[in-house]
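Long-time lurker. I teach an intro course on protein structure, and each term I like to show students one example going from raw sequence to a predicted 3D structure in token notation. This year I'd like something fresh instead of my usual example. Would anyone be willing to generate the tokens for the chain below so I can use it in lecture? Attribution to the forum is fine with me.
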Amino acid sequence: MRDTAVLAAKEAGKILLSNLGKVKPDLKSKREFVTVADRLAEKKIYEIIKSTFSDHSVLAEESYNEEMKSGYRWIVDPLDGTNNYVYSYPFFAVSIALENEKEVVLGVVYDPLRDELFEAEKGRNAKLNGKKIEVTQTSRVKETRLLTGFPYFMDKENNLNNFVKFAINALEIRIDGSAALDLCYVACGRADGYWELGLKPWDTAAGKLIVECAGGKVTDINGKNFSPYKSSMLATNGKIHEEMVTMFR
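-- Reply from a regular --
Happy to contribute to a lecture. Here you go:
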């Protein structure tokens, strides 16, 4: 299953690179793009998964929401960071997770531009290109680099008040436009924490497991148990988690 996820992610990455700067985007909503590259990459991932695990179901951002045939479901984002991709802004990734009986047991996030493969299997260490990764040891919010983003539908819920609060209190904040990569950057110590609202399962399923297997902590922003089907997320190195939850309140 791990080999299938890695193969699918890398093949999708090839499609994204070959189409970068060449595709014309369509708007799915007021602020949300989709391109032919999304669809081609998703189709390739689907074909690779089904060629080996025909009885597994697939939930993917653009085209697939299959009924459960077995206990296994693949959760796929063929291009996390599509709006970045449209502008050739170099921060996007392929995200593939596998659920077994509604629990994520495998996560792979692939950044084709940097050829960086983040992966985790439940109960094992998270890895970047085969090497173990760990979260930071920063223990106070005022010393942190934090990552966040903004939902497409800002009129329904926005992140502005939270952003202002942490911009004043943290060392710095970055907004790069890919939840999957943001989570991996927390996992490998490039940032201390990440939060966002308005998320979808394909944004977070793989990255959640990668953070946890790197020693981090993941909840919703209220400190409650998180699943990929919740829309708010807080992922940290664990040491700043309760302080951030308190600040959200």
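Some talking points for your students: The mean pLDDT is 93. The chain has two domains: 2-132, 141-248.
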